[in-house]
Specification:
57% helix; alpha+beta; single chain; three-stranded antiparallel β-sheet; Ybab, Chain: A
Length: 106
């Protein structure tokens, strides 16, 4: 009987964790993180779903004779914003799961 009681307790904990994860994922979609490149010439903003939500480019960053530099600045800011969003999600999920690393959980 003790084994079944422990199993039921574990299942309840897992169900609560799943509910908490759904709630957290909803909250994270509204949280944003930003990154800049070129000394602030380009700013990229990503959300907790690891999607870019905006890119801002200062006019002085637009040089028709050096489009490649602008492309590089956009890529750098976007990649950094997405990495920061990934880190934010991982940190929040780790806090929720108590550091449990369950493959495929998130």
């Amino acid at each position: 009987m003790n084994g079944m009681g422990n199993m039921n307790k574990l299942m309840k904990q897992v169900q609560k964790m799943q509910q908490d994860m759904v709630k957290l994922q909803e909250e994270l979609k509204d949280r944003t993180i930003e990154a800049t490149s070129g000394g602030g010439a380009v700013k990229a903003v990503a959300n907790g779903r690891k999607q870019l939500v905006s890119i801002e480019i200062k006019p002085e960053a637009v040089d028709p004779d050096d489009v490649e530099m602008l492309q590089d600045l956009i890529l750098a800011a976007a990649n950094e914003a997405l990495q920061k969003a990934e880190d934010m999600v991982n940190q929040e999920m780790s806090r929720l799961t108590g550091g449990l690393n369950i493959p495929g959980l998130f």
